[in-house]
Amino acid sequence: MAKKKTPKRTRAALPELVYMITCDGVAVDPSTSKTTIYGLFEKIGVLKFPATIGRLSLVAKISGGIGKHEISLAVLDPDGRQIEIKVPTFVIACHSRMSGEIHATLTNLSVKKQGIYKIVLKSGRKRIGTPCKFMVSKIKKKR
Question: Is domain 16-133 given the CATH code 3.30.230 in the classification?
């Protein structure tokens, strides 16, 4: 009796991060689906530590990785510890030559010290692309 061949399961390839940008806000034109990004930045000044960043928006473009992917977002402090944030998991369906965007807004982000913070995207437990970095530093109060 000949053995029946079972098809090999192929694991979906991880999607690729095309870009990830920190900004003040994002808008999508409903008629053209074009994204407008407001206030790009990579430095945030605070008067004292600990501090709360009221609002920080993020735009990320994901490409490839055919299939559906649950994308999660994490913010790491300068020591590499994850900061508690409330952001949903995003589900992106990727097709061969297509890409998708993630728009997220973080509110009341608590920062305890000066340094470089990182925003990381993950598909499952695997990191996607290079983290987006932003610097938080103390500024002098103007008199």
Answer: no
